[in-house]
Amino acid sequence: MAGDPTPAACPIEDYRTFGPPVPALTSFERMDGYQDRARPALWTEDTPGYWVFTDHDVILDGLQQPDLWSSQVVTPTEPDPPYKWIPVMLDPPEHTRWRRLLGGYFTPKRTKGMLDEQRRLAAEIIEAVRPKGECDFARDVARVFPATIFLRIMGMPVDKFPEFMEWEEKILHSGEAEVRMEGMQLVMGYFAGLIAERRADPDPEASDIVNNALNWEIDGEPVSDADLLNCMLLLFMAGLDTVAGQTSYAFLHLATHTEDRKRITASPELIPNAVEELLRVYPITQTARKATRDVEFHGCPVKAGDMAAFPLSAAGRDESVFPDARRVDLDREDVRHLSFGAGPHRCLGSHLARQEMAVLLAEWHRLIPDYDLVETPMEHSGGVWGLDALRLRWDV
């Protein structure tokens, strides 16, 4: 291992980034246990051995120090990844240039301009499943809704969605490095072909991201094809997975907490705050960093090259910051969470994600206010946690 922690310096726990599927919420309960036993950090001997920070304020501090904790890595089990997702795996000042380039596509104003279309789309998707009295919400609704929005923003064919999701699954939810690389190669190969098609037959009226990207420049220089593909890969992963995952956990909670469900159904004005509270209690992204130098970081003897996990699930459920933190409270007034990250890499699409979740919550409960959980779903681990399925049923 890069560092040489001892039990006296840091508790050693049997923490694993990738593991077999487990019953839903098990990963959150395990993280609660790690936090209760090991604060502000633990050391795991999960290959190659890395720190796991468990305290909200320590996680926030680390994410705000890109000079100490580099974003060259995204998974703590891969200290030298053979890929570079742009811009999430860049450090300032290079990251800053890309952030400036991409920021205009996800502004609050631009996001709000999509609201009516998103409401229509959500209603259409929900009406398609409502007569059946049952559905796999994760597959039939939570994935389809944000993915359709994203594919339209990108200028990609919606009818290839099932194939895109297979690639996404390989990249984000496989514990095998070879499988993840296979998924990335499939995505980048697709984008290489799509970009070649657009260049060969340009559409001057098109305003989607892929079309615009053909003319992107940074510091007056055209973006290279390699960097363009790495950026498209990152947007692909973020657009097809995270909102679906977060929304599935929100609906798992509401399917099993009748009073909360009744409240947002009767009072839709609660939904924006409910979105924040559900994001806080169920953060699915467990990001990672790599130390750039030797330092004692909140009492931990960190060495240059050490890997570290900064699990947002620990930050959101920290009892020292949020009273009764592991319980959803729709009346909570201070819901300033880290579920979209912090520092220079705070999620670029947070405005869009919030709106998509709020729209889906509002439209679903307008059309299907009462529903139950068919069975306890299974969840997968990795850098982004998620439910394999979420079967709901209701009276027709």
UniProtKB/TrEMBL annotation:
It comes from the Bacteria. CDD domains: P450cam-like (cd11035). PROSITE patterns: CYTOCHROME_P450 (PS00086). Keywords: Heme, Iron, Metal-binding, Monooxygenase, Oxidoreductase. Gene3D superfamilies: Cytochrome P450 (1.10.630.10). Belongs to the cytochrome P450 family. This is Cytochrome P450. It comes from Actinocorallia aurantiaca. The lineage of its organism: Bacteria, Bacillati, Actinomycetota, Actinomycetes, Streptosporangiales.
